Amino acid sequence: MASNDFDLASARWRKSSYSNGTGGDCVEVADGVGGGVVPVRDSKRPSGPVITVTAAAWGPFLDGIKAAP
Questions:
Q1: How many angstroms separate the CA atoms of 41 and 13, rounded?
Q2: For residue 65, what is the DSSP state?
Q3: Each residue's pLDDT expressed in tens, for the chain with a length of 69 residues
Q4: Which of 32, 33, 51 is nearest to 42 (CA)?
Q5: Is the backbone of residue 38 left (phi > 0), alpha (psi -120 to 50) or beta?
Q6: CA dist 64 → 13, 58, 59, 61, 69 (Å)
Q7: How far, in Å, CA of 46 to CA of 36, rounded?
Q8: Model pTM?
Q9: How far is CA 17 from the centre of its chain?
Q10: Using H for helix, E for strand and C for coil, what is the string for 2-42?
């Protein structure tokens, strides 16, 4: 069975370009984690839960967001 645990200790988190400095909706993603996943977290709760999305699903997800009205 494959593990869903990823070492995020050395993850390089970056905020969404849509985040703002007034406490608005802030999403961060981590680069360079490996394992074919993209970790996502709430930047206001950096020690909170992390969602991992497969890299294969991440591209279509972003495309869908960009296409939304």
A1: 9
A2: H
A3: 344 667 788 888 998 776 666 656 788 999 888 888 899 999 888 889 999 999 899 889 889 888 887
A4: 51
A5: beta
A6: 22, 10, 9, 5, 10
A7: 22
A8: 0.74
A9: 12
A10: CCCCCCCCCCEEEECCCCCCCCCCCEEEEECCCCCEEEEEE
* Close Cβ partners of 66 (under 8 Å, ≥ 6 residues apart): none
Write out the two tokens for 1.
């069975």
Structure tokens at 24: 């608005």
Strand order in the sheet with 27-31: 12-15, 27-31, 37-42, 51-54
**DSSP structure class, residue 52:** E
- Please tell me the predicted confidence (pLDDT) of residue 1: 33
